[in-house]
Design goal:
Elements lengths: L1 E3 L1 H5 L12 H4 L2 H4 L2 H6 L1 H17 L4 H12 L6 E3 L5 H4 L6 E3 L2 E8 L5 E3 L18 E5 L9 H10 L2 E5 L11 H7 L3 E6 L11 E4 L2 H12 L1
Parallel strand pairs: 1-2, 1-7, 2-3, 7-8, 8-9
Antiparallel strand pairs: 4-5, 4-6
Helix pairs in contact: 6-10
Bound molecules: ligand BJW.
The site of ligand BJW has 36 residues, from helix 1.
């Protein structure tokens, strides 16, 4: 099982959250990444995600996304990608199955009234109406702080059964994803961190490879294949 974070898309030009110049140095996360922030100023939150959606559409998968797609193709059905990223660069690199977006997706829209989901337009606004119930309560299909991440049962089942847990490009500061390494360790599963530098949770991993994802991941995938 491979958990990916913002670091895997950093070299595609998409900003990380907590690095120097990261998104949380420019935006107040309580204003743009919580249900309370959305209730207070939906236009501000839509603007934030409209800009992120535009950036993601303009970005291209990098050598790390490509290598992970190559690994999945070489080991069909054996490699589950669990991503915290809301971009679709894993899919565009060729990971068309066995990808879980635990924090949602920029390509999705969600009705806060009836929970209907549909493909997000390029630009969303507070006036947009749900195509099913017509309520003007559409939001990006993103998991904000205080909300329950998606497909957790599937993730914990896979985590308990996997032979290797790898975390790539994530700071290990956001739960529940930050706790996966400890769950894996408790189950006796081998763990590996791949990150630009030692993360907060580095000490929990059996091994670590530090450096840019576009260099380390293709090399690591080559050795596995
Ligand atoms: C590179 C690189 C390169 C850079 N190559 N590497 C107190 C204690 C414990 C928990 C809590 C607490 N108070 C509240 C909580 C819970 C809260 C939480 O964890 N808060 C923490 C801040 C403390 N979590 C939640 O609310 C979650 N829900 C929840 O817990 O529900 C209850 C539950 C319990 C148990 C089981 C199940 C459920 C929801 C979290 C939602 C997170 N949402 C966000 C924003 C929405 C998505 C979006 O807008 O994109 O998701 S926050 C943001 O952080 C985003 C990311 O997915 C997430 C993780 O960030 P990530 O990917 O790790 O990025 P960075 O920037 O932090 O790190 C990048 C890393 O890459 C760095 O290490 C760099 O070095 C590295 N790097 N360039 C390789 N080229």
């Amino acid at each position: 099982m491979i958990l990916t974070g913002a670091g895997v898309s950093a070299e595609s030009g998409l900003g990380t959250f907590r690095d120097k110049d990261g998104l949380w140095t420019k935006y107040d996360l309580s204003e743009v990444a919580t249900p309370e922030g959305f209730a207070t100023d939906p236009a501000k939150v839509h603007d934030f995600y409209n800009a992120r959606r535009a950036n993601a559409l303009d970005a291209a998968p990098n050598a790390a996304h490509d290598a992970l797609a190559r690994l999945q193709a070489a080991r069909p059905g054996e490699v589950l990608l669990v991503t915290q990223n809301v971009d679709d660069l894993h899919e565009r690199a060729g990971s068309t199955r066995d990808v879980i977006h635990m924090h949602g997706a920029l390509t999705g829209a969600l009705c806060a009234t009836c929970n209907h989901r549909w493909t997000a337009p390029r630009v969303m606004s507070p006036e947009d109406r749900c195509p099913k119930c017509t309520a003007p309560s559409t939001r990006p299909d993103i998991v904000w702080f205080g909300e329950f991440p998606y497909q957790m049962e599937e993730i914990y089942t896979a985590l308990a059964q996997c032979g290797l847990f790898v975390a790539i490009g994530t700071s290990g500061q956001v739960y529940p994803a930050a706790g996966f390494v400890q769950e894996a360790r408790a189950a006796g599963i081998e763990t590996l961190e791949i990150n630009l530098e030692a993360s907060d949770g580095s000490g929990y991993f059996d091994r670590a490879l530090h450096g840019p994802a576009t260099e380390i991941v293709p090399h690591w995938v080559d050795t596995l294949i």
